[in-house]
Structures are given as C-alpha cells and as structure tokens.
Amino acid sequence: MKRIMCFIIIILILCAAVIVACPKETNAGSAGTAQQNSSPPAAEPEPAQAVSSQPKLMVEKYVLDRDYIEAGGSATVKVTIRNTSSSQDVKNIKVSFWEESAEILPDGTGAVYYKQIAKNSSCTWSFKVTATTTAQSKPHPATITMEYEDCNGNPLSASDRIILQVRQPVRLSYAEPSLPVRVTQGDRPSFTMTLMNLGKSTIYNVHLKFDIPGLSGGSLLIGTIPPGESQTGTTNLRVESEQLGPVKGTLLLSYEDEYGERYEEEIPLSTNIEAKKEVSVPKQTDMTKTTTKFPGWIIWAAAGTLLFALISYFVSRWLKEKKQREEDEMRL
Per-residue pLDDT tens for 287-324? Predict the structure, then answer.
C-alpha cells in the first residue's frame, strides 16, 4: 500500500512538472514565431519640401515726360516693372501697352521682351506714344500686360492700369483788327473784332482790353466760344483832347481753356489823332453891312414898276376881250 501511494505521488509530481514546463516552451515558441513573422521597422518619412508661392510682376510706377499729351502730339512714357518675389527669378518676359479707345497709339508694336528679372528686382521700359488729332480731351486709361514664366517654366501673366491725360489744343483765330487811320479829338470811333474757335474744345472768358494813348474805352468781355463757332465784339472808343498826332498801343486778348489755363496775346494798334476844327459862323455885323449896301428907295421903285406892269397887262387883256365880244355880237 505504501508503495502504491509513493508511486501515485511520484506520478503527480511528474505531471505537475510537465504542466509547468509546457507553457514556458509554448510562450517561448510563440515569441520566436512572432519574432520571425514581424517585419523590420519602417523608415521615418522624409519631411515634405515647402511649396513656394508664384512670382508676381507688377507696375511699380510710371512717368510721362510732360503734364499731358496734346492731341496730335507725342510724348515718352517710362514704366517700371518689379518682380515682387523674394525667392524666384522670372524669365521670358513680354510687356505690352494697350489703350482702350485707340486714341493713344504706341510707336511700333507696343511691346518689349526681357530675358529675365531677378527676384526683388525691377526694370524700366521707355516707349513713345502719340495721341490722335481727334483724341478726346480727358484722362485715358491704358493697360500694361506682363506675360512671363517662373523658374520651373510655368506660364504666368499679370496686368496693371495707368492713366494718360490728353488735351485738345486751343485754336483761337481772328481777323487782324485795326483802328481808323485818322480820328478827331472828341470823336467816338467804333471798334469791332470777330473771333473764331477752330479747335475741338470750348474757349472761356474771352476778354479784350485796350491800352492806347489818347483813346479810352476800357475793356470788352466777349465770353464763351463753343468749338467751331465765332463771336463778334463791338465797342466805342473815346478820343481824348490831350493827345495829338500818331499814337501806338496794344489790344490785350486773353482767354481760358476748359482746364482754367489762361492764355494772353498782345495785338498792336495805331492811329493818328487830329485836332477838332471849329466851323466859323458869320457875325451879325457883317450881315448888317451887306444889307445896307442897297438903299430902300431902289427896292420900293422896283416893286412899284413890277406892280404897274402887272396892272397894265391885265387892263390890256380885258380891253381886247371886250372888243372881241362886241365884234362877235355885230356879226350875229
């Protein structure tokens, strides 16, 4: 019996030992399998490169070589173009000019080519433009277009607007004015002047002012003259008594355009002032002396003779008619 019990205990001990030993091997095997099946650690991703912005061209400034372009005239425009990018150059740049109303035309094709504009740099395009003779007197918007490529060859474009001022020239014409060749002290000679607006813009505040020694008359305001029309101004000058002989002076013609700019022109005038001639009136004493040359009796004798002749004529005629009637009665 003791042997059986010992045998059972030994078997139990062996079983327990087997049970304890098996999980360790299984875990070890599982660990080995996991170690064999697991993939090697993935490499860390490289940091993505930062995408840079597209380079931008713009008109930084522009300058006209005068205050405005006169219709029919020419001027030079300077346009400065800047590459605003701080990281990229631009290349294959084409810059062109275009005016919306086609009243300002560039010389040639109105375009220019630049091989490259470096980052944070600029270039200046200088070109000549001409305004047509019929161009309207006003500000004219024009467009500067820029076509270019970035450093990778991608096509890009940009445009900016500039303003160019055009004015029509003032064309005031007139017939050469003149005074009478001779004027007399105390007279009021008339002066007339016709002015014609041959331009395409209105002329304002047309004014005439006289500065002639010996003649006074102040000034004459003609006013506004529309395009293609004429106005006539008339005034009377007064010849003063203090001045005699040839005199020379000026007529100051002044006017303004539609922008308020004032124009002046001096026109020479001349005349000859003569003294006023007094008309002599016969004195009463002279008339009396002329009358006394004929005595009164002569006048009365002439009147009596004329009266006697008239009476004799009528009496003689009456007698003839009476005699004729008597003869006619006797015949009957």
Answer: 555 555 556 677 777 777 888 888 887 788 777 777 77
Domain 57-167: what homologous superfamily? Immunoglobulins (2.60.40.10)
pTM > 0.70: no
pLDDT score of 232 more than 50 = yes
In the chain, CATH 2.60.40.10 covers: 57-167, 172-274
How long, in residues, is the chain?
A: 332
Q: What is the DSSP letter of 39?
A: P
CATH 3.30.365.10 for domain 172-274: no
DSSP states of 230-255: EEEEEEE-EE-SS--EEEEEEEEEEE
Helix (H) or strand (E) holding 96: strand 90-99
The rounded distance, in Å, linking the Cα atoms of 319 and 82 is: 137
- Report phi then psi at 191, rounded to 5: -125, 130
Express each pLDDT in 264-274 by its tens digit: 999 999 888 88
Q: For residues 237 and 216, is the Cβ–Cβ distance under 8 A?
A: yes
**185 touches 241 (CB < 8 A):** yes
Q: For residue 187, which of 227, 230, 233, 239 has the smallest C-alpha distance? A: 239
Of 91, 53, 60, residue with least CA distance to 78: 60
| Nearest to 201, CA basis, from 298, 54, 71, 306 | 71
Reading the block at residue 253, the tokens are: 């013609």
- Picking from 271, 207, 206, the residue whose alpha carbon sits closest to that of residue 238 is 271
